Amino acid sequence: xxxGSLVPNITFFDHKGQLDLEKTKWHMRWMFAxxxxxxxxxxxxxxxxMISLDERVEIFKAAKEVAADFEGKILIPHVGCIDTESxxxxxxxxxxxxxxxxxxxxxxxxxxxxxxxxxxxxDLIESVKTPxxxxxxxxxxxxxxxxKTVQKLQGFGLKGMKDSPLEVGFVTRVFxxxxxxxxxxxxxxxxxxxxxxxxxxxxxxAIAGINNWAPEIxxxxxxxxxxxxxxxxxxxxxxxMDLGAKMHxxxxxxxxxxxxxxxxxxxxxxxxxxxxxAFSDPKYAEIKKWLQDGFDALGLKME
Length: 303
Known about the structure:
Layout: E1 4-7, H1 21-33, E2 38-41, H2 53-67, E3 74-77, H3 84-97, E4 102-104, H4 114-127, E5 132-136, H5 138-141, H6 147-156, E6 160-163, H7 168-180, E7 186-189, H8 195-201, E8 205-207, H9 215-227, H10 230-246, H11 252-262, H12 283-297
Helix pairs in contact: 1-2, 2-3, 3-4, 4-6, 9-10, 10-12, 11-12
């Protein structure tokens, strides 16, 4: 079972829009050192749909290289593309590199039928031996999973789901269907939102965007939760939720880069058409204050 705090890590680029692998590896290493348990690679935070298949494979290789210097870190490359062939090629490349699971959003842009989506995942599952996780993100894919769809995919060997909307009716039905019927199937939260209540239900892993720019806070939350320190876990959850809400003023990838820049790290440039505000923008100072207040509330030191 995948457990703990993972990150939908951002991908770094230089001022010309070229992939900056060294900076991307620095960021992976920094997050691992701060207690992050694993990486969800080239998803929406990681600019996966905006870059080439070869660039995504380079990022998978970089992650494998960095993870080799640590113990027990989890790698889940996101391979979802608009078409099946590209998705399968990415999945097979990731499997050759050596990863723990493979994630994929349904084919996006077009309004795909349930039969098409089921066929997409069936082809993907049959193309690799590595466990496949579906990624429920209807905001980007224009497709919403329901229990019957998940059950069909479980019949083909789907091993889990990363769920971002966290609609309680859907998540609980899928979770308890798997638990009560003893299915080999895991739900991973696609956001840090809901970590505490869903943990008490039995979900033990989350892919948290805050890990990109404040991994110390999510690490403190998960540690306190696993150790049964209710008071500290509740305080850390409040700080995490408050910071997350404040940082939702712009695109999540841009906000993550701004958070790193606010802390004094070189987070590179956004991939156009996205752009970071000028460094003279007072928003950076405001973010730094939010972060410092959050760290202080938990007795953490901010670099």
